[in-house]
């Protein structure tokens, strides 16, 4: 906690024009509570409507801001999810795995591309930072936890530190929870009786984009959770938006046209969604070697 408070104070020494990026998730809920409960600072809160959140997320974000007396600004991505995926790449496999997949398929025409980073950037990150600059703010606090989030963030945190300047966005980014583990987050939530997103009580592991394939792993499948919790949203994603074809293409490592022919021969996407919905739960046929560790 001491290091977290030091990071917050050092960020304010850089510039007092700060805000908190709040997603409604557990990590950002902890960060919001720490700043408003344990410091004298009262930065405004910025939330991005990426059009892919849980139905109750915006209401939850508003209620949390009212609870702390925080001013809220809502930014919105200009593209629809489908426009982003078709133009920039589908959010599948996770950031590092998607990059490796793209490298391995560079000379193959699969009919689409994967890019989790571009989806996050254009649908969640850029809209808030653009609005920040417009409002005269120079620094953004986030709930990123470095290596506890993923390896890439861990490496960046190790190289750049908890607070860094982003030349591309012309703002400072500060991550006071850098180094926090899952156990530390859980302990803080319990000790301070934090009210969390309603979807957590229904079994959601993370509160992020409903349609992100970055978490379609064998121990944490966002697609499976979506199917079980919000079947109407799942069907729209798999059938209406035809992302089921992309999932199967990645899973079986076959070009999109081959997958579509196979699906039609099996009865069509809608039929498979009704009779064998579980085939869309994962992006790999089998767990990776050593996955149980």
At the fourth CATH level, what is the homologous superfamily of the domain at 2-79 and 123-194? HUPs
The amount of beta strand, in percent, is: 5-15%
**Overall radius of gyration:** 20 Å
**Distance N to C terminus:** 29 Å
Q: Total number of helical segments?
A: 14
Describe the main β-sheet briefly: 6 strands, mixed
Q: What's the pLDDT, averaged over the residues? A: 89
Count of distinct strands: 8
The helix-strand sequence is HEHEHEHHHEHEEHHEEHHHHH
Describe the global form: globular
Instruction: Show unreliable segments.
Output: none
Give the name of the CATH architecture of the domain at 2-79 and 123-194. Answer: 3-Layer(aba) Sandwich
Per the CATH scheme, the topology name of the domain at 2-79 and 123-194 is: Rossmann fold
CATH top level label of the domain at 2-79 and 123-194: Alpha Beta
Strand order of the largest sheet: 3-2-1-4-6-5
Helix content class = 40-55%
Helix/strand/pairing category:
alpha/beta
What does this structure look like?
The chain has 293 residues and is α/β, with parallel strands linked by helices. It has a domain at 2-79 and 123-194: Rossmann fold (3-Layer(aba) Sandwich). The protein is 49% helix and 10% strand. A six-stranded mixed β-sheet has the order 3-2-1-4-6-5, sandwiched between helices. The longest helix has 19 residues, at 116-134. It is globular and about 65 Å long. The two termini are 29 Å apart. The model has no long low-confidence stretch (mean pLDDT 89).
